[in-house]
Amino acid sequence: MVGQYEGWQGKEMKRLLSLCALVALTGCASIMEYIPSGWDANQARVITDIQQQARHMDCKAELKPQVDKLARDVEWFDIYAETKPTRDIARLTGTITDTVRELQDRVVKGPVSLMYCDLKKKIIQQQADILARSVQGRF
Q1: Alpha-carbon distance 73 to 70, whole Å?
Q2: Do 9 and 55 belong to one domain?
Q3: For a surface tag, which of 3, 13, 45, 127 has the fewest beta carbons within 10 Å of its beta carbon?
Q4: pLDDT in tens, 95-112
Q5: Cα distance between residue 87 and residue 91, in whole Å
Q6: Contacts of 128 (CB under 8 A, 6+ apart)
């Protein structure tokens, strides 16, 4: 009788441990969503390039080459953040990607007013600065 009880107790203990392990692993997976990613020199370099391009954008000069270069760098940054994966940064890149794409589409359609360009430039600078603080602030 004692042997049967010990066998039953061992099976229940294994089930309990399995359940605890399952809960712990599931919990760890969801916790990882809230832990910021670590320092990445590639992201730091490219976001600094994006900031510099935004600051030096000349709305009185031809915009297409400037915006195309900026769009390529933003696209690189976005792809890298998604594939690395740095989920925390990938969530932030959508806004600047959309803003640069809007400017790029507007440039293709024809002449862009100086006021529109200046507004987009300021918005892109702000978005790049926010991203840069997120990227550069990691350790």
Answers
A1: 5
A2: no
A3: 3
A4: 999 999 999 999 999 999
A5: 6
A6: 47, 50, 51, 54, 96
